[in-house]
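HOLO CASE FILE
Compound: pyridoxal-5'-phosphate
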Amino acid sequence: MISDGKFGKYGGIFVPELLIPALEELEKAFLKYKDDKEFNAELEYYLREFAGRPTPLYYAENLSGKLGCKIYLKREDLLHTGAHKINNTLGQGLLAKYMGKERLIAETGAGQHGIATATVGALFGMPADIYMGSVDVARQKLNVFRMEISGAKVIPVESGAKTLKDAMNEAMRDWITNVENTHYLLGSTAGPHPYPTMVKHFQTVIGKETKRDILEKEGELPDAVIACVGGGSNSLGIFSEFIDHKEVELVGAEGGGDGLEGKHGATLSAGTEGVLHGSLSFVLQDDYGQISEAHSISAGLDYPGVGPEHSYLKVTGRAQYGPITDEEAFRAFKLLSKYEGIIPALESSHAVAMAEKYAKENQGKTIVINLSGRGDKDVNIIADYMGVKL
Ligand SMILES: *Cc1c(COP(=O)(O)O)cnc(C)c1O
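Model generated. Tokens follow.
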């Protein structure tokens, strides 16, 4: 490997030896094509014409009035397939094509990354096999159907707790056996090097557009940039362009679930250091290092690990992280829907709730919220939560 993929002491490559050649091949291709003119022109074409970039940086006037701050929303919810995930699947899908791979595999929890991968598989004419815990397959029938309609095969995983982390293990196993013709399209800034660096790279487009647009609208950088953190890709995507500007506060909202005393997915707020899925980071684990089950009302935030760069940003104090409970996210979901006519994903609602808290302590400041996805997929969960029968 050219790099050890470390962020401070976090990250790295903790995988079976059999996987090292595959990771090396991927690192080499990524380093070659990330600055390649033809590759980037083609990627920009698909981001624009297929996915709908650039996305607006929208001044949320009503919410600003209500919270006493200037609030801007980075509208990743307007992208094709409804979230920022398509930025990464287009990037990696195209890279796989340039590498001459013929097949995509991916893991998925609730199905959002599976759908974004199935979409790119259809676009580039590559078969896509999506590993999904059998518990999630049963819970997310509609998303399974959407993947299948786009031509992907959904493979139920019966091991462990039969959810996301088990699906990730199974996808890695498949990759070891089929690395010749297969690309493993990992969905967030987690996993072994080069994934955390590569996925962040494909999401930095969010930060680049945001910086350009806020400078045009405000003439200066924002006081704070706020995003939700599951594996960490939408947050690192928007943080990336502001990390070197120390005056900009970076705030991450984790899935606080029932609160830190109960079940939650707040890895950085309440976890400890450990190795999960090939890298050293904060994880939710018991005293024996067994990975705990995470919980959040939003499927995208209930991962018991977190991307290693976030661990580094946390311990160096460059970014702050805090939990948002299910109840707080639910209220923020209703707030944005009612005040702005924008129904946010439950994941993104965590960022909105965090912005409310920030605004209370920092009146008059300028805040950018990354609206990572739209909430159509969550309307049933909200109705259930409210006891409304649809
Ligand atoms: C998957 C998802 C997330 C969480 O993933 P990150 O890698 O942390 O960005 C957040 N928001 C939405 C809408 C998602 O679909």
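CASE NOTES: Residues 83, 85, 112, 188, 228-235, 300, 345, 347-348, 372-373 surround pyridoxal-5'-phosphate (CB under 6 Å). The mean pLDDT is 97.
CLOSED: yes
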